Amino acid sequence: MGKLARNGKLSLMQMVGRMSIQLKLILSFICIILIPIILVSWYLFNDAYRKTIEDLKRTNQFMLEVEKSSVAGNVALMERTAQLAITNSTIKEYLGAAEELETGDLFEFKMEAFANFQQFLFNNPSIAAIRLYTENPHVMEMYPVIFQERRIKDKPWYDEVIGRNQMVWWDISSSPKEVVNDVTGGTQNGLYVSLLRETNYEDGRHNGVLEVKMEAGTFFAKTFSSMQDSHSQMIVVNREGRAYTNERALIFRELPLNEILRQFQLRASDVPDSFSFTYKGHPFLCIPAQLEGLDSYLLNVVSLKEPLEQVNQNRNTIIFATLFLIVLLSISSYVMHSLILKKLTILRESMKQVRKGNFNVDIAITSMDEVGELAYHFRQMLKKMNELIVEAVGRQAATKEAELNSLKNQIDAHFLYNTLENLKMMAEIEGQYAISDSLTSLGGMMRYNLQWTTNHVRLKDELTHIQNYIAIMNIRYDNHLELHIDVPPAYMDQEVLKMSLQPVVENAVKHGMGARHASREKLAITIKAYQLNDCLAIEVSDNGDGIEEGKLREVNLMIRLEDGEYRQLRSASARGEREGSGIGLRNVDQRIVMNYGKPHGIRVESVQGSYTRVTLTLPYLILTGGATAHAQAIDRG
């Protein structure tokens, strides 16, 4: 398989190689336009699809929350009505009577207490019926509220209500025929939501059942309303899995109610916040919400067909527009490339003549575009070729001479090292140990300067060089220099530019040993290193005379000036001012910036008469085995 893949790749490359430049340019032009358009369109269409779904989901979730809020209000209304019914003292006394009332007492009860109770309970028109069923044989039925319990013992919910011990039981059911006639003399047919609970005597014995009913169209106002969006419909699913809704809704022309129930039951064990499904190729979204007190679910089913068709229509429009644009641009590109490549053909024939040895070819292209410029440079190249042939011999001789000079320098360097070693041995034999130490330091400095094989060295090598430099300078200043190195071992392998610290230390010695410093005991130069975020800061500070504030600003400015501005300011300065303008520090800063970038470099701080501190900021890199790698984090504990 690997060999076949390599052969196929090679064949494709050969086929592309045999194509003309004109065809390659047209194909590349098409790819440059087509690929970004495909990627952008794919992203935009996915984003539009996602936003369409999210907008529909938010809208219908809001409608669902409105319906849930309405249902919660109706639940509270029915519970409040039920509570008023069972706590009425007159009615409780009548339902718990130990014997039948006399005719006069019964008539008085019905005309006054019962009439007032009935008027109070039915004050809210949303309540369809309030009924008290009692097993007390001494209670006479009073339409339409008080009935004997035997009328409901065949109801499917009766045993469940009795077994709940006065806890509320909600029932959603459709009744073709009610147990009693309503006050108008007809029968109440249709779908109702019923609040049912057991009632007891004062001693806790079972007395009967309370029923508060509300029509489902009132209880679930939006679910059974005909004013819903034509693309969505709410459905109530009770605990038995039966569905109740406005079956005349338009959505059921595309999606049967049984299919909705089937999709919901597939997810009944772990009902999600929302889910989508397809039926006969059409997408739908279902958003369920639990009605906890009713032990039921309210579903909002949304058809995605029309919204997504609009998204697809927009996609197709963009695709057709893109194809048209590609065809138009391809034709234009073909014409333009034909004109350009005609000039390139002339140039190609001229090159063939040159390959045969004819260096006096004249290219007849006078246009000022890129091809004309290419022809001009080709003529110049022909002119230059003869000059280069002559120069090649001279360059070869110069190379040989450079190699000889390099060998001579090496010989001279070894001669100097050997001479210094002999002088050192003579000084030690004579007991001149100060001279011997100075020669050792001088030899170390010479080796460090002459053996320049790389621009990058370890910090410890640069510090060794500084120690040699201070040792030699102490001869000049009669040991008035002190060098303190405060660098943790973990930073000794830090990468630094070779000879980047000496100009800074040399500057400290030169300016720190001022006239007024002669009265002091010693000039102390301290070198510190510490990590600063992802960088390493190296501080070179001295307790010398410091720098006047105005001069300090000028030095920091000159360090980072552009070359043109720097030369102008430097040429305008007096000679003495130029010598103190920080050219050494500027050179070090420029080397650091060239190697590591502008965030790194040099910063000078000073207080006149107190101290001067130069901080070099470098990337935190460790030299290991000659290769540069990012340092491991150091334990700061």
Automatic annotation (TrEMBL):
Keyword terms: Cell membrane, Kinase, Membrane, Phosphoprotein, Transferase, Transmembrane, Transmembrane helix, Two-component regulatory system
Classification via PROSITE patterns: HAMP
Enzyme class: transferase
A GO MF label: protein histidine kinase activity
Keyword match Repressor: no
InterPro entries xref list: Bact_2-comp_sensor_kinase, HAMP_dom, HATPase_C_sf, HATPase_dom, Sig_transdc_His_kin-like_C, Sig_transdc_His_kin_internal
Enzyme Commission number(s) from the entry: 2.7.13.3
Chief place of localization: membrane
Highest rank taxon of the organism: Bacteria
SMART domains: HAMP (SM00304), HATPase_c (SM00387)
Location in or out of the cell: Cell membrane
Domain HAMP: 338-390
Transmembrane stretches, start-end: 21-45, 318-341
Reaction equation(s) it catalyzes: ATP + protein L-histidine = ADP + protein N-phospho-L-histidine
Bilayer topology: Multi-pass membrane protein
Protein name: histidine kinase
